[in-house]
Amino acid sequence: IGHMAQASVEGGTEFGYLHIISDNLARKYAFDLSNERLRDVVGDRKKLVGQIEEILSGFFDEWEPS
Model-level pTM? Predict the structure, then answer.
């Protein structure tokens, strides 16, 4: 979240918390909050954060503040 807030400030936009919500409470999954430090989970999280950074970067590259 901190990186997203920083990008928002640098891009001159207002910032609100962005929540990435999973439905891990609805049923049992192989990965959940009890094993979030496993290598596979951490690796997948890094990929997801990279995708989020790409999306935000593309937005800020095209955004023209009024």
Answer: 0.52
